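Our example pasted here:


***
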Amino acid sequence: MSVTISASAVQAAGEVRVVFGRVKRRLKELADKDDLTPSQSSVLSRLDKDGPASASELAAAERVRPQSMAAILSALRAADLIERHPDPLDGRRQVVSLTTTGRHRIQGDRRVRQEWLAQALQDHCTEAERQTIVKALALLDTALEAAASR
């Protein structure tokens, strides 16, 4: 069975991809000069959002090989952004968590990026346009959640 996709859906998908790509590139530019790799940033963000996790849990969540996760964690540990502790439920396992430095780093990066984006929206969009953006993003999120659950 073949499904026909409307021209407006194709156009919307293309525009979303292009705009999100521009936003992503600009937000990356705002990072510190001693910037982390995208994989390292993703692991820090995940630890900040989800809390401590084992290396194998992080590898599965990030969809990377355990060896790749070991290299990522080694670099983050060398930068004093993460620490390892014995798992309180299973002493054979190690749990990775953010250090205070790591938490400050990820929160500072987020704050800088959010402030830049908020300023751009404030300077270049009306209140009504900003509300339209909020509504459009909610619709996009709903569509993506529905598509992911199929």
DSSP finds six helices and two strands in the chain. The mean pLDDT is 92.
